[in-house]
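Q: Structure tokens for this one, please.
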Amino acid sequence: MSSLKHKDYFDKFFLKIKIKTMKNLLFIVVIIFTANLTQAQWEATVRLTNDPALSYTEGCSQRNIASDGDLVHVVWEDERDGNWELYYKRSTDGGVSWGADTRLTNNLSDSEYPSITVSGAVVHIVWQDDRDGDTEIYYKRSTDGCLSWGPDTRLTNATDKSYIPSVGVSDSVVSVVWYDYRDGNPEIYYKRSTNGGLNWSTDKRLTNDSADSYFPSVAVNGSTVSVVWSDKRDMEYVQNKEIYYKRSSDGGISWGADTRLKNSAGWSDYPCVTASGAFVHAVWQDWRSGLGQVYYKRSADGGINWDAEIPLTYSTYESAYASVFSSDSVVHVVWMNYSDIHYKRSTDGGLSWGQYARLTNYLNLVCPSITASPSVSVSDSVVHVVWCDRSDAPNYEIYYKRNPNGGLIGIKESDIVKNDINVFPNPASDNITISFSNTGLSKISISIFNSLGIEIKRFKEMELVGENAINFSIESFPTGVYYCTLNYGTKKISRSFLVLR
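A: Here is the predicted structure, written as tokens:
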């Protein structure tokens, strides 16, 4: 892929952006202020590459970042060698510091669209490669945490092109999906290894329809393999794409039927899937409202049944290229919104979602295409995000950001369930109700802080046990963001709320 091809890709993408007039400036300022406060736990952005050539992540299903404990792995495509090659970088201390760039491929043709996953010390990477005179899927692995790498392994040998793979792993079972033109139109194909990438099965065709199937994403959890993709078989709407899902309950040996996850007149594309326990979570870009937004859907029984889809974004700019990662009941989503990277999480398995955090701040109406293609991963309590960015240079470089406590792993159940606090309605204008629970292990107090961190109201220590509520007037509170904090012992739980006039 030449740099011109990438330029055309981004030019085409941003031609679709529809910038709408902002009708309430005060509300916008409040929302931006809220987002900046929400991301307070996010540390400073780290630039991972520094070369005059182009460096790209692909995001979505490709997943350019993977982590396990303190080991964090990033892979991207890079043009510093005159053609597109794969490069890799790792951190051994949870993203605090980073090693040198490592070149993974070395041939005269283009190597692109890498996807990475990890299981313990074994790291697996797949990508598309033109070295054979045609585009094929290749694989590479490291068994020692990426101190050394094995040889490139060609996974496909088809009569036509194979594109954009996605990889997932559970213990020693590695699953790869891609879309393939060997049947005359793009179809979804699957391949697996049961011994950690040493040997591979034959290619298995997962879709069989005269319409086009694109952009698959795979997630593996135990013996359940989940695949999502975008599909044009449903032509009741002209040139419509829908999101489809397919599952295997025996590690990829046999597969169930294709399941249509949505049914709307809007174009849907670029899906991504993750799985944790019995839950499967999918996100995609959806144009049903006339402007691309990020939508979410979940299954609580391993992909058998699905809840209704919900929008995660309501932006006046296009939201695209969402990446999702789940760890137990915590679900993390990152996406690109016009010129910035945004983040949102759910702590109850996708039932409800918190406020978004704006991870970059490059809002630029003259040149919107500053950031692109984020990916997210979580290890222990740390959330890791990587994307490509041209904020510091005329070309794209690779950037990284982490939240050391965003994964919530390690927090005791009593901290998040037995002692809790909530505010409603939210937003509010006249009165609010603070509901809270107390185990009775210690006295509690409740404080209200403004956006500057100044305590403006305090309910003194109370010995109330169980579920309780306090109602009071906020008519004297100016428009803005406030925090309600429950203090018990040496611990605190905070909830934000918005006052609008």
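A few notes: The radius of gyration is 23 Å. Residues 1-40, 410-417 have pLDDT under 50 and may be disordered.
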